[in-house]
């Protein structure tokens, strides 16, 4: 059963990764990069600080916990525990992989990009529940797909990363709601 799932994941990866075009490579490379999203993160922080003023420390603390949980689950536990090679390191298929730049670390299960972006998107959705935060989930999906496009993650890596991100968001949201219940009222309408 597991072998069948791994084979299907590889085939689905090769199909998705094969949907590439020279003109799209630099765009996907930019999307998959971390630095291009700094203005988005800065805007979110600005809006939170503007609305909550001195009480913004609580949401900043929640963001730190959220990303720590999501990132450590993927990179600190899953990758070293499962030791699943990235597609660009997998000898059986690496010659078929459209690798846009470099392969990265040896292991890819689960995707840290997916875990972190989905954690932020779902956390913001849980807090704000508006149309803008729904777009954040689309943003997380795009960033995650870019990881397949550039050749460094299987779809299964992305799915597990998204699940880890969702779990980190649920845990952080419930802790935040329990510790800072009055702050949630002030937060609504920020984004």
Characterize the structure shown.
- The chain has one domain (2-187): Up-down Bundle (Vanadium-containing Chloroperoxidase, domain 1), CATH 1.20.144.
- The protein has 8 helices and no strands.
- It has helices at residues 2-17, 25-32, 38-52, 56-82, 112-128, 131-149, 155-179, 181-187.
- α2 (25-32) crosses α6 (131-149), α5 (112-128) runs parallel beside α7 and α7 packs across α8 (181-187).
- The longest helix has 27 residues, at 56-82.
- The chain is elongated and about 55 Å long.
Q: What keyword list fits this structure?
A:
70% helix, Vanadium-containing Chloroperoxidase, domain 1, 8 helices, 191 residues, mainly alpha
Rg is: 18 Å
Broad CATH class? Mainly Alpha
Query: Which fold name fills CATH's third level, the topology?
Result: Vanadium-containing Chloroperoxidase, domain 1
Distinct helical segment count: 8
Count all strands and give the number. 0
* Count of distinct structural domains: 1
